[in-house]
Amino acid sequence: MDTTIYIRLRHRVQVGGDKPVYLKDIASINAPDVIIHDLKKLIVHKVTKEDNNIIIIDGIQIIEVITDKLNIRDIQLIGPQQTIVEVVMRKVKMSIPLFLLVWLLLFIGSAISIMNFHEDVSMQVVHQKLFYLLTGIKDEKPLTIQIPYSIGLGLGMILFFNHVFKKRINDEPSPLEVEMFNYQQSLDQYVIMNENKESMKRMDE
Fold first, then answer.
1. For the purposes of burial, counting CB atoms within 10 Å of the CB of 85, is it exposed (0-12), middle (13-18) or buried (19 or more)?
2. Which residues contact 138 (CB under 8 A, 6 or more apart)?
3. d(Cα 19, Cα 104) in Å, to the nearest integer?
4. At residue 196, does pLDDT exceed 80?
5. Range(s) for CATH 2.60.480.10 in the chain?
6. What is the pLDDT of residues 122-134, one digit of tens each?
7. In degrees, to the nearest 5, what angle opens at C-alpha 200 toward C-alphas 196 and 205?
8. Could you say which architecture CATH assigns to the domain 4-88?
């Protein structure tokens, strides 16, 4: 078929463990209306039990499938040359006791970390000196400073993580989300590089 199609692979997608991977799932497609439907419904990979939870689909593999199934020769790949397909199994029902246990461990760990930090920097002494400078009164427990400080500490954590339970405060990503994004990018790059090495080994064999 004498026509040109343009394909832009997505960086990372998720698919069900028992479903085939269609071209429309992993790529944006620009093609004439007469073939766009066939392209979107084209199966590029069938997930099997032998597959791991991460599958790398290469652009060359996409070209081979399109050429073989639809006899299209002029295929232009734009953007990423591989797509990372994450196979998602059926969600397991969350265990309430396990959730409460993890929440309790995280709460206790966070509280101990904050208390150890305040002990290391002698925060109580700082509050006592600050209270004395402001009022001229020596007080071992300056609650008028400690209580607002504790409230401010909690509000600062909320602003830092940019969430109140599931609700966002604003559209800006939190530092934690940025770090998770950078970690995911590094992990994806490692997976792609490792897959390329394995492919080269198989070709040499």
1. buried
2. 128, 132
3. 38
4. no
5. 4-88
6. 888 999 999 999 8
7. 150
8. Sandwich (2.60)
